[in-house]
Structure formats: C-alpha cells, structure tokens
Amino acid sequence: MKRKNHSLKIQFFKNLSLTFVLPFLLLLFIITLYTYHTVKEETERKSTIYASMLCNQMRTEIEKYTSIVETAAMQESVKSMDYTQAEPYLQALLAVEGSDVWSHFLIANQYGTEQVHTEGKQGHGFSIRTQEAFAMPWKEEKTYVSEPAVSISTGRAVLGISTPIYRNDKKVGVLIGYLRLECISDILNNYQFTNNSYVFMLNSDGTVSAHPDQSLVLNTRFGLPDEDDAEAMASYAQIPESLKNVYLSMTQGKNGSVIVKDNDTSFLYSYYPLGIRDMSVCIVSPLSESFTLVYGLIKTMVISMFLICLTGGLGTVMMSHRISSLFRWIMEQTSLLSSGVTSLREKKLPYKNTKEVKELKSSIFALSAGLEHVLSGLDAQSHDLTLTVNDVSEHIASSDANIGNISSHLQHIASGTKAASEATETLKNSSSKNLSFATSIADFSKEGKTYTLDMMQKAEGLEKNARHGKASAMEVLASMRENLKLSMEESGKSAMIGKLTEEILDISKRTNLLSLNASIEAARAGSSSHGFSVVASEIRALAESSKNAAGKIQDISDVVTAAVERLALDADNLLSFIDTSVINDYVFFTDIANNYYADATEISRMMERFSEHAEQLRASFALMDGNISHIFATMDENSGNITGIAQLTSEFAVVLHGIRDEVNACNEISALLRSSLSAFRAE
Prior knowledge:
Elements: H1 8-73, H2 76-79, H3 83-97, E1 102-109, E2 114-117, H4 132-140, E3 144-145, E4 149-150, E5 157-167, E6 170-180, H5 181-189, E7 198-202, E8 208-210, H6 230-237, H7 241-251, E9 256-262, E10 265-273, E11 280-286, H8 287-290, H9 292-338, H10 355-491, H11 494-525, H12 530-682
Antiparallel strand pairs: 1-2, 1-6, 3-5, 4-5, 5-6, 7-8, 7-11, 9-10, 10-11
Helix pairs in contact: 1-9, 10-12, 11-12
C-alpha cells in the first residue's frame, strides 16, 4: 500500500504541536487535576471538621442539661422520694426551664417503678426497670444519657438524662429528666454548611433521631432492616451502595466524608460520632455548593486550555508557512542545478537576517560554482581515461596466457599430495585406536590397584575388629564369672531366712502358750479381769498370725533357693559355651582376616607392577600417535596450500577477465560521459 505524502506545512504543524502545545496542555491538565484533588480533600476535611464542631456543640448543650438533672438529684425534696415534696419542686424546675425544652421529670424507686412524675399521679406506677434510662445509672452508679426514644408515660419523642439518687450515702432511686427531641433537632436545623444543606442524627441501631422531615424521626431506620421485613429490605436494596456504607459507618461510630450520587444528583455526606451512646451526626450538602471553588477552577482551566490551543494553533500555522516558503526556494534552486543551469538568481527569503538562512544561501551559490568547475574537469579527464583503458586491456591479454600454464602444473601437484594425505590419515586412525586401547588398559590397572588397596584396608579392619571382639568377649566372660561368684555367695543368705522362720515359729508357740495361761488366769479372776482376758485373746491372735506369716516366708524362701540353684546351673553352662565356642570362633575369624590381608597385599603388588607397564605402553602409543598426527597435519596443510594456490591462480585469471570487462565498461562509460557532458552543456 502506497503511503500518502503530506505537505511540509502540515508536517511542521504536527511537529510543533506535539513539541510545544501538547506538553503544555498536558502540564496544565496535571496541575488542574492535582488542584482539584487537593481542594476536594480539603473541602471534605473541612466538612468533617464542621460535623465534629456541631457534635461538640450538641455535647456541650446536653452536658448543660445533665448538670441540671444532677443538681436536682441532690435536693432534699427529691431525696425524700415523696411525691408530695418532689413533684412540686420538679414542676417548678420544668416551669423555669420551659416546657419547650423539658418534656417531663420522673423518679423511679429501687424496683424501677415510677412514684414521682411531673404529669401527676396518672404517671405513677409505670415500670421502667428494663429501660436503659433506669437500668444503666442504677447499675453503673453515674449519670447516663440514653438514646432518643418515645416515652411510655407521655408518648413524646424525648432524650433521657438519668442519675442515681442517694440518701445518707445509700442508693434509693433514679431521677430521669426527659428533654424534648425537638430541642435537639432545633440545634441541628439551625446549622447550615451550605445554602441547601441539612443535618440528621442516627441512633446506634440506625434509627433516625433527628431530621428536617419530622415524619422520619423515630419512625425510620436508615441501617440494615430486619430480614423478615420484605418491604423494608426492598427499599434498602434501592439505596446506593455508597450511602449504605455511610449509614453503616455512622452506626459503627466512624467519621469521614463520602460523595454519594442519588437520582442524578451528587451530595457530600460528612458524618462524625456524637460521643454519646454511639449516636452519629451527618451533614448533607449538594456537591455543587460544597465544591464551588473546584467547579470554578475547572471552568477557568477549560477556558485557559481553549485560549492556549487557539493561540498555539495560529502561531504554529504562521511558523509552518514561513518555513515551508524557505524550503520551496531551496527546491527551486535544486531543480535549476539539476537541469544544468549553474547561474542562480537572488530572492527575498523568510528569516533572511538569521545566521542559518544566510549560510544556506551561501552554500547553494557555492554549490553552483563548484558544480561548474567539476563539469569542466570531467570533460578533460574523460579523454585521459579512454587512453588508459586501452593500455590496460593489452596487458591483461598477455597475462591471461601465462596464468593458464601455471594452473595446469599446480593441479598435478595437488593430486599427488592428496593421495599421500589419504594414506597418512589411515595410519593415523590405526594409531588412535591403539592409543585408546592402551589408555583403557592403564585406567583399568589403576582401578585394580585402588580396589586392592581397599581390600587391604578392609582386611586390616576385619583383623582388628576380630582381635578387639576376642578381647571384649574375654573381659565379659571374666566379669560374668566374678558376678556369678558373688551372686552365689549372696544366695547362701537365703538359708538364714529358714533359720529366722524357725525362730519366729518358736516364738509364736511360746506366745500362744502364754496367752493360754493368761486366759486361764482371767477365768479364775472372774469379771474383774475382763480387760486382762481381752489382752490374752489379742496375744493369742497375734501368735496365730505370726505363725501363718512364718509359714508363708518359709515357702517363699524355698522357692527362691530353688530358683537361685537353677540360675547358677544355667550361668555355668553359658560361661562354658562362651569359653569353648565363642572364643574359638574369634580366634578362627582373626586367622581368616590375616590370610585375607596377606592375599590382598600380594594382589596389590601385582596390580602396581601391571599399572606401571600399562602406563609405559600408553606413553609409547601416545608419542607414536602424536608423530603420526603431526605428519598428517603437515601433509594436509601442504595439500591445502597447493589447492589454495591453484584456486587463487584460477581466481586471479577470473579477476583478470573481470578487470578486462570492467576496463571495457569504463571505456564505454567514458564515451557516455563525454556524450552526457556535451548534452548537459547544450541544454
């Protein structure tokens, strides 16, 4: 496919655009992008700071109300837990603070039952034992702020502030003040981050506790609904994923700023934990209002890019037009020179006062003068070339005949050298085979010598092991005999057990006799010697037990004595076997090891002499092979040189023919050059 050629002006326009305009636009785009992200992050950070400031303001306001409840709990009328005294005080406090701030006050006893209520007796008797407004301060014994909820007794949306009541350092109940949730919402509604921004607050479970749309307060849950509520799950599925993450982060007590796109409109959500029961506050503002500076910056950058492109494009077009005019003049002068006109005309050029353009004009006019000089010289030298070519042709013809005779003689010499080289190669192959065989014999003899040395070492090791085993067996035999002798001496003591047993039996008989006499005496003494009779019975029982034990000892002693006698007989047989058989086997094994070592030594000497002879044979064959290889290499080199000379001679002849052809061509070119010069000047 033929490539399309563009004009020089278009090409200059492309190059200048790529070199200057586009890099500048890219740099401007990078600066714009960096500025956008910087301002965006700063705006998000500022929004988060505003949310934290709002949370601090709300905590300060709630702490103010907390101090009111704590102060009220220290009043004697409240400590009395008597509604006739406490209710008037709390009603007066409610009137001072205003009914638009406080919903109601109540006091619950230690069982969680309301017994004081600013709404009167109709509020008495409700149990709030399980509510965190009572359970937490009662358990933790400190003031507690509960999450917004609907009051059981009044049905209003309230925020509970509860503190324990102490009387004589004893916990007797809990005072709870309920702030109207509208009071808290007013603080949020009066705060505006931008013109159309709003603020909402969520409980820890995602329930809306403050919102400009009062219908959502304590009736809507922004967090993940129960799986059983199909309608709520369907509504939750339509919420953008980024907004779900905002609600999840708020219920987890996190802070941050996120851009959320909802119904083709983008909003900036900036949330921050309130610091009370994992509640969170979120500021929602339209992105166009939050990022006013960013959008203005983007517009400014777009206009700047357009102006830069416009001015850069015009400047590039003008520059490319002037440069292309300069090149057109160069093409015109070159065309005149190619047509044989060496006298050029002056013309006004772009950038004529620049150093480069002046040098360019000087070079073109110098080229014109040089071309005129060259053409004149070629005309004279072409005639000389024709004469020289004729002389060279005559010398080549005479050299060609001599080269033919030299080539014929060299071919005969090369044939004889080749035959001698083939015979030498056959002799070299036979010598190489003999050298390989001698080398194998020498290597085998070395391996045999190494193997016999290993045999000698193994035989020597076997002989040492046999002698060491014999010595060890003799030591073991002596030790066993000594131990057997001692064991036999010790076994003799078992006879003493029999004597001791007889003595125990004798003592048992006398003890039995003594107990019999004691029993007779006790019978004579009558009832006054009952204790003596008991002792006599116990002595008789002891004597009988001693007799039985002595009998068992005697039986065991007989068994032990018989076992010791059998053991002594077996030990004698074992020692006799070791002395007669094992020791003799060790002696026989030692003799075999000595004979094996002597044989291995003799074989080693034989292999060493064989290895020496084999090595001498290998050295002789190696020397012979080296000499034959040298002869073969020399013959091969001579053959190659002769063949090379013959080839060079033939090639030289070819070259001479080529030179003759070139000379003839030069003669033709010379004639053509003279003809062309004549025609060029004629034009």
